[in-house]
Structure formats: structure tokens, C-alpha cells
Amino acid sequence: MIIKELETQNHTDPLRRAGYEAERQMAHYLKRAFGEDPNKLVLNNLRVERGGEVAQIDHLIVLRFGLVVVESKSVAGQISVNEQGEWTRWWNRQGRGMPSPVLQGRRQLELLCALLDEHTAELLDRGLFGLKQRTFGAMRREVLVAISDGGRINRKTEVPEVVKADQVPERVQNSVNQLRGSLTAFAFSDTEMTRICAFLRNRHVPARDVQADTASAPAVPHPAPPRGLTGVTFPPHCVPVAAPALPTAVHTPTCRQCGSDQLSIQYGKNYYFKCTVCSGNTPARPICPTCQQPARLSKSGAAFTAACAGGHQWSYWTNP
Known about the structure:
Number of helices: 5
InterPro entries: NERD
Protein name: NERD domain-containing protein
Domain NERD: 18-135
Structural class: alpha+beta
Order of helices and strands: EHEEEEEEHHEEEEEHHEEEEEE
Mean pLDDT: 81
Strand content: 25-35%
Oligomer: single chain
Number of domains: 2
Pfam family, one: NERD
């Protein structure tokens, strides 16, 4: 499924225009292969920030077993990779060195994973009957470099991360097939995949100069986006919605062990439901019924209100 479409870009610079065309080509292949697959969630042209650093990811694929970063490279002639892993771009028999897109993709993925690690408790469920917090440490992480259809690859050493753009979907499917059926493989739940995609889409910050390539275009300052209750960044120009009367939750939480709705919210490391029937614990992780983003709870007496980063609020639970 396509969670975030590729943003339309109008470049006057030929190199930027060629780069965008390579991304558009790759986005087309991913949509054709995974557009209706609920187990492969695609975010195109994702740009997130952490601690003053920026991760610019051409294509991110959230799989059941982990994350795949795809770096799109526009190549009109030929690229070569020598035994030292050094990259050269060739055009009209003239070579010019270029940074390794494999290392570039790994750096982007590393920063993205660091951002996810900071929000582990919000994004992942607790395991072992709610006693232990799951982490991102065991998830699969992979980088692929997609060379545009018109380019040629001269490999003097094996670089398994480098493929032609039309081969990326097959490589992704092969990775899934290798892990499918493994009892020890890390796997996201449906809810966790939804939370992660909503979180990343909400953290996306478009580049300020992505639509302005000419020096004559006046620079328009963009205000810093406000911070939400969960630490999630609002999208630019997104105004939180404040309802005068809080709606109630559509879904009634139940005990994950016995299915009872005889619960009360307690607080340990995080909020959780305590079942009065079987004494089991169930994480209290509200999902916004309007925008499907993860939400955070606030307490006022016996009443608990949920609020998501999109500004929606609703009455989540009242303890007996």
C-alpha cells in the first residue's frame, strides 16, 4: 500500500530534474508491485529530522519484518564500483567520482532508526504478557540502490545492494520469502505497522527549497511546525482541531487475555488496563479513529482523554 505518494516537484536544474524522474520511475514500480499489498507499506520522498540532522529517504518500505530504504540514482551513462567500494559515474568516456549511495542509504536508515528508538514505547507493544517492552533492535534493516532503467552498472566487485530500478520489487519479495515462516524472525503487528507509518508521515518535513531552483525566486521562510502532545511534529500548515465537546471512543477496549471489558486503567511505566476478571494486563494504546495516528492519554480524576498529534481529542475511558 502507498502510505505517502511522491510529491510533485518542478525543477529547472537538469540534474535535479533527472533525479526526480528517477524517483518517479521507482515510485511507479513500487506502486505497481505493492499498491494493494497491506504487508508492504511505502512512503515516498520521506524527510524527517532528529537533533538537527536530516534523513532524506527516497523510498521507505515498511515490511512485516523490518524496513527497506531504496535510494534512487539517475544514471544516463554508466557507473562503476571498484574493489575499494569507490563509485565513478561515466559519461562520454569521462569518469567522475561520486559518493557511495550505499553508505548514504545506510546513514539515512541509521538516523531514521534512532528516531524510532526514541519513541519505542509509543510505537511498539509490550511482550511477555505486557511485562517487557518490545524494541526495534531485532528488526531487519536493508538498503537498496536503484539505478534508473537507462543506466549501466560495471561491477568490479560484488555490490549486492545495487540493482536496476525494475528489479527492486523482486528483491524486496525475496527478502520477505526468506524470513516467512521463521519462528525466530522479528515481526511487526498490524497495529504497530499502522502506528509507525502514521508517525513517520506526520514527522515528514518538506525541504524548503524543493520547489525553488532559481536564485531569482524570493526565499519564503517557513515557520517551525508545532509539537504535538506525543512529541510528534504537526505537518506544515496543520492546525490542531479542538472540538468543543469530546467524542467518545468508537472501539471499546477489552482484555487481551480473556476478552472481558471489566477493566480499569492503571499506571506503571506506561498506562495499561487491569482486568478485574483475570487480573491480566493490556497496554492502553489509543489510535485516533479519525486519522489513525497513535494518541497519548491524559488523566483527570477517573476520566482519561486521548489526544493525537493531528489535534483530535476524544473521551477514551472512565475508571469505575
